[in-house]
């Protein structure tokens, strides 16, 4: 949340080590979303209603400009219940201490069809036209996934509405639901409790299948329900926030800059013993501004502009041509900690390959079969990052273009299968598709942020985002290379390529 000039980031944290367990709420603060100071844990396991874990929840700024956090606790019976905390002293700019009132738990998993072990992760609250507060809680209801709706006058006493905000029989449980308003084609954010302008859409985001998915639709005030614009029975076809290693994301309205920012967690894909040796496990991706495209179909995401403050040495190239098999090395920057932005311009689309809609059911499988070494009509072209001198290790982030009836489809892959010589790692080939109008759009953009084990990529202006974790042996020697490449039969032009070394952010430095 953003409160009185300070960004607060709360996160699941084990104070006793880098393995899962003993979960409390860690707390860090920042003035710029980039450099963070770690504070004492905000919520610890101290009461019967959270003694077995302080799990996910959300912060809300109340009408009197006082923050409140509703979070899931595992109680003495290991039921999942919803609790609240308030800051002890709102004049403390860092809000170091939080108080649990005697009214906890506020909400218990009571009601027909509820599973007490699948009832968690309340959303940020919002105010309806009747003046009542609302939150949604992820749940399993009669064996189906649901975002249950609760109402309150005072944010403490809650009543369950007799129908969910939305439910689906396509899965059994949604974690970390998020609900927010967006204005098509406008990258400024909306506060869900403020007046929502005409033409706005609503987004319901949920975490399942080890990824974050979402639906765009309308919030029917009269029925207090979310109505998706499109309902797809096969959840494999649901839109995703990120097509890589990215989960349990939360968004908030940043009143400082009038934008909506989304945070996502990315876990380690090496071993538990590696985590113990490192002394930490799991990181957050770069915070992203998130908004809705003008067609009201797709969320777009872009790293917050503050990340650009870390840029140092810059290299720039214009007017490159990449023919079949070409590798162009990007030199002059720190390839272990870098920001690369590159535009690809297609010289011909006559040799474009046909699109098979069945690929949408398993895009990772298609990325494995059509990898960066397989010549296509238009593509693959993109970046090779964290590459060893002999290319035994490298991570490929690339595009392919396909023709589907009247439109063109762009496949974006982040292929980790050759990212490391270590055999025990999880090294998938991630991928996502987006549509493109090649008559209107002459170039396809790629932005990749590299920070040692993190490779975070944004394709087509943020239409597909892929977060990846890689652990090349080459990192130990601090000697990696980076290339732009083309393995398609059609020549690809690069009108613009810019790359920067990135400074190290000050993260979780203890002060005071």
UniProtKB/TrEMBL annotation:
Keywords: Glycoprotein, Glycosidase, Hydrolase. Residues 306-501 form the Glycosyl hydrolase family 32 C-terminal domain. Gene3D superfamilies: Exo-inulinase, domain 1 (2.60.120.560), Glycosyl hydrolase domain, family 43 (2.115.10.20). It comes from Urochloa decumbens. SUPFAM superfamilies: Arabinanase/levansucrase/invertase, Concanavalin A-like lectins/glucanases. This is Beta-fructofuranosidase, insoluble isoenzyme 4. GO terms for molecular function: hydrolase activity, acting on glycosyl bonds. PANTHER family: BETA-FRUCTOFURANOSIDASE, INSOLUBLE ISOENZYME CWINV1-RELATED (PTHR31953). Belongs to the glycosyl hydrolase 32 family. InterPro entries: ConA-like_dom_sf, Fructan_Metab_Enzymes, Glyco_hydro_32, Glyco_hydro_32_C, Glyco_hydro_32_N, Glyco_hydro_beta-prop_sf.
């Amino acid at each position: 949340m953003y409160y009185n000039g300070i960004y607060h980031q709360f996160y699941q944290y084990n104070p006793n080590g880098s393995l899962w367990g003993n979960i409390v709420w860690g707390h860090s603060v920042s003035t710029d979303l980039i450099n963070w100071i770690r504070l004492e844990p905000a919520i610890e396991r101290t009461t019967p209603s959270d003694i077995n874990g302080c799990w996910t929840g959300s912060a809300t700024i109340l009408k009197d400009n006082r923050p409140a956090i509703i979070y899931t606790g595992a109680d003495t019976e290991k039921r999942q219940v919803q609790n609240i905390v308030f800051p002890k002293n709102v004049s403390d700019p860092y809000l170091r201490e939080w108080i649990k009132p005697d009214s906890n738990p506020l909400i218990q998993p009571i009601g027909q069809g509820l599973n007490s072990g699948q009832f968690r992760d309340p959303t940020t609250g919002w105010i309806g036209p009747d003046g009542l507060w609302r939150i949604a809680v992820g749940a399993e209801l009669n064996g189906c996934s649901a975002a249950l709706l609760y109402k309150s006058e005072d944010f403490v006493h809650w009543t369950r509405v007799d129908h969910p905000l939305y439910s689906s029989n396509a899965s059994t449980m949604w974690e970390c639901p998020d609900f927010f308003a967006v204005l098509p084609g406008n990258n400024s954010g909306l506060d869900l409790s403020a007046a929502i302008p005409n033409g706005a859409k609503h987004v319901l985001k949920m975490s399942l299948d080890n990824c974050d998915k979402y639906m765009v639709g309308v919030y029917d005030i009269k029925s207090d329900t979310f109505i998706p614009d499109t309902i797809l029975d096969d959840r494999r076809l649901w839109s995703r926030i990120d097509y890589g290693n990215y989960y349990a994301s939360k968004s908030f309205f940043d009143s400082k800059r009038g934008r909506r920012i989304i945070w996502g967690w990315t876990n380690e894909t090496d071993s538990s013993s590696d985590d113990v040796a490192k002394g930490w496990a799991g990181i957050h991706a770069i915070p992203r501004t998130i908004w809705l495209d003008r067609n009201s179909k797709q969320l777009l995401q872009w790293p917050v502009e503050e990340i650009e403050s870390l840029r140092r040495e810059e290299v720039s190239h214009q007017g490159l041509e990449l023919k079949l098999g070409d590798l162009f090395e990007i030199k002059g920057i720190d390839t272990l900690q870098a920001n690369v932005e590159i535009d690809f311009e297609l010289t011909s689309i006559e040799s474009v390959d046909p699109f098979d809609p069945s690929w949408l059911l398993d895009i990772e499988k298609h990325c494995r079969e059509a990898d960066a070494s397989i010549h296509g009509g238009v593509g693959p072209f993109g970046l090779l990052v964290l590459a060893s001198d002999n290319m035994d290790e490298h991570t490929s982030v690339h595009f392919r273009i396909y023709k589907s009836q009247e439109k063109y489809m762009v496949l974006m892959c982040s292929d980790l299968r050759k990212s490391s010589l270590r055999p025990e790692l999880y090294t998938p080939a991630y991928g996502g598709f987006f549509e493109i109008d090649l008559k209107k759009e002459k170039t396809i953009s790629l932005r990749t942020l590299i920070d040692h084990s993190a490779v975070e990529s944004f394709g087509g202006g943020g239409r597909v985002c892929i977060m990846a974790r890689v652990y090349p042996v080459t990192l130990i020697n601090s000697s990696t290379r980076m290339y732009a490449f083309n393995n398609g039969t059609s020549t690809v032009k690069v009108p613009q390529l810019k790359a920067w070394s990135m400074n190290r952010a000050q993260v979780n430095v203890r002060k005071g």
